[in-house]
Amino acid sequence: MAAVGSGRGPDAEASVEAVFREERGRLLAALVSRFGDLDLAEEVTSEAIEAALRHWPVDGVPSKPGAWLLTTARRRAVDRLRRDQVLAARIAALQVEADRADPAPPADIDGDLPDERLQLFFTCAHPALSAEDRTALTLRCLADLTTPEVARAFLVSPATMAKRIVRAKRRIRANRIPFRVPGPDELPQRLPGVLQVLYSIFTEGYAASGGPRLQRLDVAEEAIRLTRVLHRLLPDEREVAGLLALMLLVHARRGARTAPGGGLVLLDDQDRSEWDHPMIEEGTALVLVALTGGPPGAYGVQAAIAALHDEAADVASTDWPQIVALYDVLLGIAPSPIVMLNRAVAIAMRDGPEAGLALLDDLGDHPLLRSHHPYPAARAELLRRLGRRREAADAYRRALDLVGTEPEREHLRQRLGEAER
């Protein structure tokens, strides 16, 4: 066994942790592909990692750690199946190796761990599962978050999240959802579901739905990591590049979005020198990939809008006419009340608050926007700019009734106090 550092020092522990983070999703996907059982794959993946934690700090990280983990996990899985008489026929059908699992760790191993995470992406995001179940299962299986960590990300109890994950797994079994990448005829219909799951995870990290913090950076960064994986697996899919670009261009502002005490800092007031400019450069390059070679997709257009914000020296010099034009394109591709809300705000920046407010008032009866705090908050801001303070105060109160995070709530309280004075 070739070793990458040996002993129990911090370097060895860091190496082991880095390997687990990179290899766990690939290992789980390979085991699900071989045995067709997500629960079994999760159990033997955990056992293989536990074995590595015992042996690697002493013997060193093997030259092919993924293959080491796969061999160990596969032996454990075969041993479990053999002990289960009910599954004897299944073992024969799988034609797995005949030797019993060796309790000792595998020695030198040839070959690499196959990367079958793409199949796992599509299994976790299958349309037979509910939107909540798809997101929870993706975080649990591909992001390597524990059930309590997934529960914290979405502000539910661990027991509730455990039931959600179990329900998703049962539905996969009951519906016999295949572990495979959709064919070329299915991919255009199935890929948007995968992208929506990843975008939902990122949105919860970038703009938390509730709690004491405005952002959950660990959740946002995990969404970016998973989207990078998907982009490596599907390099020719322009909407995957568009989604990754959008995440990077928005996440690049993370350091300037909150004050030292955790308070909200609006885009107008952010110190743009604190933005992550290498991340902006990477995202901008991906925008070109997303918008080249065919009709634009929704994520590519949103990424282009984010790039215009990131490239501007300040709010006043932002290319608002181009942003409005891009929102017009986006309305043609993926119309939604949220897009119309954002377009109205962009028009207010281009043509003045009265023009934007008229559009917002036309949207006031939409049920989604009535429960979406950015809508009354946007109206309040435009009313404040027009000097209509009493109406602005009413809109701020409405937004306060709907807002989720404490930093946003405090910001709205301050604005309300100013309007009342």
Characterization of this structure:
The protein has helices at 10-35, 38-59, 65-83, 88-94, 117-124, 131-141, 147-153, 158-174, 187-206, 217-233, 238-251, 277-290, 298-311, 320-333, 337-351, 353-362, 367-370, 374-385, 389-402, 406-420. With 421 residues, the chain is mainly alpha-helical. Helix 6 (131-141) packs across helix 8 and helix 10 packs antiparallel against helix 11 (238-251).
What tags apply to this protein structure?
mainly alpha, Serine Threonine Protein Phosphatase 5, Tetratricopeptide repeat, 0% strand, transcription regulation
Spatial shape: elongated
Radius of gyration: 25 Å
CATH architecture of the domain at 336-421: Alpha Horseshoe
End-to-end separation in angstroms reads: 73 Å
Name of the CATH class of the domain at 336-421: Mainly Alpha
User: H/E element string?
Assistant: HHHHHHHHHHHHHHHHHHHH
